[in-house]
């Protein structure tokens, strides 16, 4: 390895081609973090040249501005091609500089600075005489990744090329526009624009430097890349996974497949959808980071955290010696499966489970879901059985207020049990159900009917967070929307516009007086009973949007029409505006005439009964509880690290 600082002029002056290899990520630089600071350094260097021009004094050792480092490795020479290098690191920086030089060339042509335009041109394109007819793309100093290529070729186009921009929202397109505006504003600031653009070129040639690290054939580019980037702030865990895989594609003698693997399989994973940040706990991660961690958990049968994804992936990959191309295809398959389950689940049990997971952010169950749905040995019926079991297990524990801290290990052991059963007879859904039902102990058990009834009927149900409340009411509502219902389309708990409303308001004192207690103190028995009833499950319902704030506290004769107009939910119309099935002691027309503690209690019992039907537990006795103190301590330590 050779390292040294070089002026920018020597980087781009010769006929040379820098190639961004397939293992690199696409262009991601932005204005605030990258373009602006880069241009400020370059403009400062150009201003110093302008000052020297005005004074006509030239320092023996002018100030040098360093723009960071690049790592290059020479490519084998083809007799008809220009000499070239692959950019092991620094591709974002060199891409930006090429875009800036092309923008400067256009501004120079615009203001008639012919000399500057010609000099910038020599730094953007290689000499036409040196480019062979068989390799026309060699005319570009830098050759980008396929996903960036259309935007890049537009950004470095000739000044007389008026081709339309292929994607105005792409970072490269934005960079070209930004630099052109910045350079034009700087050139027009003081004095002759032609002179200032000559000064800009001179500054770039003699006062801007980079550290260039040139690798020898024996140097391990992957190790050096990781040393430079693994602890940095820019690269994500999936970026490092991708880098390693595409490096191995070349090392395993399949370089000819690299571009097709990138374009056909990985390219969609570099899109905005997968790079969108999601928040788990207090940590921001890209969606792709999470899904690759789910996939690796499935593959290894062990919990893989996103924070340690690359380290664990690298160790597993190099020990097992897998084919990198096959793993790239497999990651894409699992990413597609994840997206399909979220956007277009195959059946209602799956849709309900996915909705529950997304609404409550219970992401630790995803490896188990992907493992079952990605296993061709598991039938749709068995997948549905697993989905129903998981929905019941998660919902019952959620409603009972039980911890989720051991879920990562629980679901991985369930995944392994399902995989073993799938290999035997395909009954992976049975295996999931049996595994969860046999778990014992408060941190792992599947609550029985008695525990669930006590949790729903005897608690302050409104104290649950909104996501859990919506999961409960959406599950009941969808259960009521059978094939006989006028509207059988299911609702989803993750729909933020769905709102939890109190029927009897929390501020009941003005419009909901307690009969026979006028003047009673605030601590009376009737008042205590009223306060308890207000937050019971039977007094809550789901509406399509919020009721008017004033309407929410109105008396029942005023509020009832508002509910009739606002809610199309069966959970409201069939148990608040009409008596629930099986309720004794009320004539059909008498039930909706008022809303009181007695009706709240009866509706609470009705909803609890429905919950037992929606989220049933199999009649399987849990195993004898073992001492899991050590496991819990391990979980606590893992949670603390995360």
UniProtKB/TrEMBL annotation:
Residues 446-609 form the GmrSD restriction endonucleases C-terminal domain. It comes from the Bacteria. One of its GO terms (molecular function) is endonuclease activity. Residues 11-246 form the GmrSD restriction endonucleases N-terminal domain. The keyword Aminoacyl-tRNA synthetase does not apply. It holds the Pfam family GmrSD_C. Keywords: Endonuclease, Hydrolase, Nuclease. PANTHER family: DUF5655 DOMAIN-CONTAINING PROTEIN, SLL5132 PROTEIN. This is DUF262 domain-containing HNH endonuclease family protein.
């Amino acid at each position: 390895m050779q390292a040294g600082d070089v002026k920018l002029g020597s980087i781009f002056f010769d006929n040379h081609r820098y190639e961004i290899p397939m293992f690199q990520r696409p262009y991601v630089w932005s204005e605030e973090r990258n373009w602006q600071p880069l241009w400020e350094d370059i403009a400062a260097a150009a201003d110093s040249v302008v000052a020297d021009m005005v004074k006509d004094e030239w320092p023996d050792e002018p100030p040098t501005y360093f723009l960071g480092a690049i790592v290059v490795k020479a490519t084998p020479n083809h007799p008809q091609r220009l000499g070239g290098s692959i950019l092991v690191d620094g591709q974002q920086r060199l891409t930006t500089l090429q875009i800036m030089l092309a923008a400067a060339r256009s501004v120079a042509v615009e203001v008639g600075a012919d000399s500057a335009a010609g000099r910038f041109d020599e730094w953007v394109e290689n000499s036409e005489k040196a480019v062979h007819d068989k390799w026309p793309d060699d005319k570009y100093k830098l050759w980008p990744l396929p996903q960036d290529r259309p935007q890049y070729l537009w950004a470095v186009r000739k000044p007389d090329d008026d081709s339309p921009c292929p994607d105005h929202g792409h970072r490269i397109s934005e960079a070209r526009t930004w630099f052109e505006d910045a350079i034009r504003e700087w050139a027009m600031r003081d004095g002759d624009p032609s002179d200032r653009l000559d000064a800009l070129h001179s500054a770039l040639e003699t006062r801007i430097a980079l550290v260039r690290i040139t690798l020898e054939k024996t140097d391990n580019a992957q190790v050096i890349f990781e040393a430079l980037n693994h602890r940095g702030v820019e690269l994500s865990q999936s970026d490092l996974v991708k880098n390693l895989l595409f490096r191995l594609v070349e090392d395993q003698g399949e370089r000819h497949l690299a571009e097709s693997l990138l374009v056909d399989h990985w390219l969609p994973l570099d899109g905005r959808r997968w790079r969108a940040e999601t928040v788990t706990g207090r940590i921001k991660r890209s969606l792709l980071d999470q899904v690759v961690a789910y996939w690796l958990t499935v593959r290894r049968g062990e919990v893989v955290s996103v924070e340690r994804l690359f380290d664990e992936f690298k160790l597993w990959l190099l020990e097992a010696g897998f084919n990198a191309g096959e793993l790239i295809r497999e990651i894409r398959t699992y990413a597609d499966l994840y997206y399909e389950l979220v956007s277009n689940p195959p059946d209602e049990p799956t849709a309900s489970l996915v909705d529950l997971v997304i609404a409550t952010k219970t992401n630790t169950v995803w490896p188990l879901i992907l493992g079952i749905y990605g296993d061709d040995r598991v039938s749709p019926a068995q997948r549905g059985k697993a989905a129903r079991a998981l929905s019941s297990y998660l919902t019952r524990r959620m409603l009972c207020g039980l911890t989720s801290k051991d879920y990562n290990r629980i679901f991985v052991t369930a995944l392994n049990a399902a995989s073993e059963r799938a290999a035997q007879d395909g009954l992976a859904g049975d295996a999931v159900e049996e595994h969860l039902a046999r778990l014992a102990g408060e941190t792992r058990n599947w609550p029985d009917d008695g525990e669930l009834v006590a949790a729903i009927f005897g608690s302050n149900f409104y104290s649950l967070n909104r996501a859990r409340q919506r999961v409960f009411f959406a599950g009941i509502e969808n259960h009521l929307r059978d094939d006989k219902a006028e509207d059988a389309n299911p609702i989803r708990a993750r729909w933020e516009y769905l709102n939890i409303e109190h029927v009897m308001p929390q501020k009941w004192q003005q419009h909901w007086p307690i009969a026979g207690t006028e003047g009673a103190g605030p601590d009376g028995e009737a008042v205590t009973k009223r306060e308890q009833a207000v937050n019971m499950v039977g007094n809550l319902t789901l509406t399509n949007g919020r009721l008017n704030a004033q309407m929410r506290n109105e008396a029942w004769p005023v509020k009832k029409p508002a509910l009739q107009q606002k809610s199309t939910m069966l959970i409201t119309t069939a148990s608040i505006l009409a008596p629930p099935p099986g309720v004794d002691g009320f004539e059909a027309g008498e039930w909706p005439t008022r809303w009181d503690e007695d009706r709240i209690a009866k509706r609470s019992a009705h909803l609890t009964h429905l919950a037992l039907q929606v989220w049933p537990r199999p009649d399987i006795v849990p195993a004898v509880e073992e001492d899991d103190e050590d496991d819990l301590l391990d979980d606590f330590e893992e949670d603390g690290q995360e």
